Fold:
Amino acid sequence: MVDLEIVSAIGFFIAIAVLLYVDRKNLEFDHGIILKRWKKGKEVIDLIVNAHPKLFSIIGTIGIGVGVLAGISLFLILLISTFKLEQVLAPVLPSVGVYSLPAPVVSVPFWFWLTAIFVVVTVHEPMHAIFARLEKIPVRNYGLMLFLILPIGAFVDPDMNLVKKLKPIKKLKIFAAGSFGNFIAAALFLIIIISSNFIFANVAEGAGLK
Structure:
């Protein structure tokens, strides 16, 4: 029987390969890493920042606090797990059909993994760009990163020479923004999932399905 997940994954990679070949003159290649850069659309970031600069400044300060707490928490978890000789972290990679990587890798269905990567990078990198522009740092370009034909991330390219000249607190706002954005996205998705389960449970109970 044909596994639709395998077929769709193969189709996805073929489409990526074709797009890369067509646009090969505009790509950067470095030991299997492929970068695709864009410059259009940067003005959208400025519109967002200029609309609520004070709000973003407050969000940036909160982001630093959350980042520090998360870093301390992770350090303590790693320290405790080391003394207990327990593994608490593992890479998360896609599985396709019945094919998955052995432990300690955590295998996630291909389309779930790809969707998660898309959500993470589309929140993470724009947050860096927003806080760079909040401090009047030029963002030269942004883009996607692939390992061969496997999407692995995205990036923004602010002028790091100017970033280095900022006060420490302003640097921290830029550096912490991406991870804080992911925390916010995770919290929103968690709220949506919990709310959906609550609503469906009440609808089912009202319909006499429980």
